[in-house]
Design a protein that fits this description.
Elements: E1 4-7, H1 13-22, E2 27-30, H2 38-42, E3 46-47, H3 51-56, E4 60-63, H4 68-76, E5 90-93, H5 99-110, E6 117-120, E7 123-124, H6 126-131, E8 135-140, H7 143-156, E9 157-164, H8 168-197, H9 201-208, H10 216-227, H11 236-252, H12 258-272, H13 283-291
Parallel strand pairs: 1-2, 1-4, 2-3, 4-5, 5-6, 8-9
Antiparallel strand pairs: 7-8
Helix pairs in contact: 8-10, 8-11, 8-12, 8-13, 9-10, 11-12, 12-13
The protein binds NADP nicotinamide-adenine-dinucleotide phosphate (NAP).
The site of NADP nicotinamide-adenine-dinucleotide phosphate has 26 residues, from helix 4, strand 7, helix 6 and helix 11.
Length: 298
Amino acid sequence: MERVGFVGLGIMGAPMARNALKAGFPVTVTNRTADRAKPFGDAGATVVPTPREVAERSDIVVTMVTNTPDVEAVTFGKDGIASGAHAGLLAVDMSTISPAASREFAQRAAANHPPFRTLDAPVSGGEVGAIEARLAIMVGGDAADVQRAMPLFEALGKTIVHIGDHGAGQACKLANQIAVAINNLGVSEALVFAKAQGIDLERTRSVIAGGAGSSWAMQNYAPKMLAGDFRPGFMVDLQQKDLRLVLDNAYADHLSLPGTSLVHSLYSALQKDGGGRDGNHALLKVIERLSGIEARQR
Ligand code: NAP
């Protein structure tokens, strides 16, 4: 079995590393905030202080950190993966970052001494998908590397699709984020409208979730919205990071994405009010504020 490493044990990385352990892979982990890595020692993983040591002890290293500069830092920075690279190392970035940066990182890895291989393999399915190993995984890179990583992907997710060359996985993930964000707006508006109509919110939610108005957001976020539980899942700050990536790419290609632009702007209001670390379903609060109606199940 390939030896697997994880760099980044946050909301997503931690359950993914646990699922790799459960599937029987020998696992080595590190996390910038060392305390978060400690429990993995008891769970059977080897805990090391740096990404370099993770790379030295692994055949496949997964990075699951925040944004493009963070992937660059843990891969090519001091004590990064590149400094611990060895023949046959495959670095799989499962964070959501810039597609252009993913392509550039693949070239830098190929020019490293020794060279190593890379895949971009961002995920969708949220914290619950990570915990239950039901993630959708969108992969960019060479087919042989995708094949090699497949047993690991199958331990982490259910829908695994090789989209194309380096960067294609990230491009697909950004397309996914457009749909996620606009679905969230649809759910928020539907619940505020239903509240204004005076109909039962939970009955409304459950029947919509069984019909053509359903979505992942309606099934997973609407119950949390109605309960007033805005803990993350997926933080507003990260949603905004992804929509910024979408809009930067859209700007470069002269695309008009009015829905994405609108939702990005609405999320800015949440960030301005200190809600950046709320879950992205807190979009409901903005729509509630605009209409002066609270759509919560009491
Ligand atoms: P998170 O809980 O904030 O975790 C981020 C992790 O990255 C933490 O372990 C953090 O270390 C580490 N990190 C960040 N910057 C770093 C740096 N410069 N050097 C070293 N470590 C660094 O975020 P998350 O929700 O797991 O998201 C991780 C990635 O998955 C993001 O790209 C996100 O967009 C994507 N994603 C998230 C979800 C979701 O539902 N949450 C779903 C799909 C995709 P510390 O512990 O030291 O802070």
